Amino acid sequence: MRAIIQRVTKASVTVGEEQISSIGRGLCVMLGISAEDTQRDADYLIRKILNLRLFQDENGRAWSKSVMDLDYEVLCVSQFTLQCILKANKPDFHAAMPAELAQPFYDSILESMRSVYKPELIKDGKFGAYMQVHIQNDGPVTIELTSPTGPTDPRLVCC
């Protein structure tokens, strides 16, 4: 499982002309689920996302506070393209979990996040939809995380 985590002052997801969700200060998380991911991978990333110290404290000390410490929001967006493997110049997405399995797994990740943190502060896009994600980066601060178990099939390991 891969996650791109961006510290934001605000972010929103729009499908067509409809805004699906939006947040103020917090994290925008693009989440790519691989065919080999398990609950262990999900638990690792949930813990990291909610506890990463990407914000300053009240005294201005950088890298001191997490979203949970500050009651900030999290916007999660499912993004299978994070499981891309390049074949020459063409992207291949076979490492991604098939949508019919990924959607319930993704939903369970959101529910786990909501059970650990304040449910009203965990937002998401629309699974499988073509979305416009509007992000106002703060910093910018962008962190890439890969769950430690990672893929075991050597064909799925990208550069």
Automatic annotation (TrEMBL):
Its EC number is 3.1.1.96. This is D-aminoacyl-tRNA deacylase. GO terms for cellular component: cytoplasm. It comes from Mola mola (Ocean sunfish). It is found in: Cytoplasm. NCBIfam families: D-aminoacyl-tRNA deacylase (TIGR00256). The keyword tRNA-binding applies. GO terms for molecular function: D-tyrosyl-tRNA(Tyr) deacylase activity; Gly-tRNA(Ala) deacylase activity; tRNA binding. InterPro entries: Daa-tRNA_deacyls_DTD, DTD-like_sf. Keywords: Cytoplasm, Hydrolase, RNA-binding, tRNA-binding. It catalyses: glycyl-tRNA(Ala) + H2O = tRNA(Ala) + glycine + H(+); a D-aminoacyl-tRNA + H2O = a tRNA + a D-alpha-amino acid + H(+). It holds the Pfam family Tyr_Deacylase. It is an enzyme of class 3 (hydrolase). Belongs to the DTD family.
